[in-house]
Amino acid sequence: MSEVDELPRFPFESDAALEPPAEWAELRSQCPVAHVQLASGDEAALLTRHADVKQILSDPRFTRPTPGDDAARIADSEDGGIFNSEMAEVIPQHGEAHLTWRRGIGKWFTAKRMNALRPGIASMAEQLIDEMVLKGAPADLKASLGFPLPVWVICDMLGVPEHDRDQFSHWSDTMLSMTRNSSAEMKTAEQEFGRYMGAHIASKRLNPGEDLLSALVTDPEPMSDRTLVATGIGLLIAGHETTANMITKMVAMLLSDRSRWESLLADPSLVRTAVEEALRLDANAGVGMARYLTEEVEISGVVLPPGTTAMCSMAAANRDEEAFADASSMDLRRSPNQHLAFGAGAHACLGQPLARTELQVVLEVLLRKLPSLELAVPVQDLRRVEGLVVGGLVELPVRW
Fold it and tell me: Which family does it belong to (predicted)?
C-alpha cells in the first residue's frame, strides 16, 4: 500500500446535513496543515485555520491551478468538467489581465446597482412563493424558490428574455454536474450555451439595453466575444448553484432551531447579520478553494514545497475559535463577522454583493409572506447532495 492510500480522504463525511465533520476541529487544533487524498486520488495539503486560509487565499503569488501546473485534481473525471474546460481558460487568471477583467465586471456589482435590483428580486421571490403556496404544503423550498430564483436574477442581469430562463437553468445544472451527467452531455450543454450567448451578444451590440451584457459590449474597451461568452458562463455557474444552495441551507439553519426564526420575526433588522452568520456557519459549503504553490511557503510552522496544491477549507476556517467567539454557535447578531465564505484576496468572489442581496431579500420576503414557515421533516432527515463541487441539500421540505 502506498503512502497516499493511507491518507485521509477529503472532503470528509458528516453524519448530519447541517453539521460539520468532526475532523475539522481536530485538524485545526492538532494538524492545521494536513496531507489528504482528494476524490481524484491526488494528494493535497489541507488548511483549516482562519489565519492560514486567509494568508494563502490573499497571497498574490498563488492562484487557482491552471492546466500548465502539475496540480492535484479535485474531481475524479476525465476532463475535470467545466472548471477545466477551454471556456474556463478564456478568462485571465493572473496578474494585470485578471485585474482588468475583474474591474470590467466589478463596476456592475456596486451597492447602488444592488439596491436598484432589490425590488425586482423581491418581486421574483414573491411570485415563486405564491406559486409554491398555491400547490399546497408540504413543499420543497429548494425546488420552488432556492433553485429558480438565482437563475431568474442572472438572466435579468444578462438581459435574457423570460422565456429562456428554463433553458438557462438546464445548462447551469448540466455544466456543474460531477456525477449526474456524462462528459458528452456536459460538453453539449457548454456548446449550446456558447452558441446562445454568441447570438445574444450580437443582438446586444445592435440593441443595447440596461443590463450587464449591454454595458460590457458598449464599454470603451470591450472584451472579445469569446471572453464575453466565458464571462456569461462564469456568471451563470458561479451565481446559480452556489446561491441556490445557500438560500436553501440558510432557511434550513434558521428553521432547525425555530427560536432563530422567531427572533427574526420579532426583529427583521437582524436579517443582514443573520445572512452573514448563515454564510459563516455553512458546514456543507463544498470542497473549498485550491491554490497552486509556485514557491516554498511556511504555514503554521510547516514548510510546503513548490508544486504543492493547497486546499483551503473556508468552511472549516469559519469555525475557528481563534477567529470567532463561540464559533460553533449561531449568533444572529454577530458583528463584525470576518468569515471567509466568499474567499479572500484577488480571487475573492466577484458576485458576493449580488449573493448577499439575494439572500437578504429572499429572507425578508419569506418572513413577511410565510411567518409560520417550519420544517416538514425532522432536521436529522435532511440529506446532503453528494458528489458536487458546491455543497447543498437534496431538498428542503417545509410547511406553513
Answer: Belongs to the cytochrome P450 family.
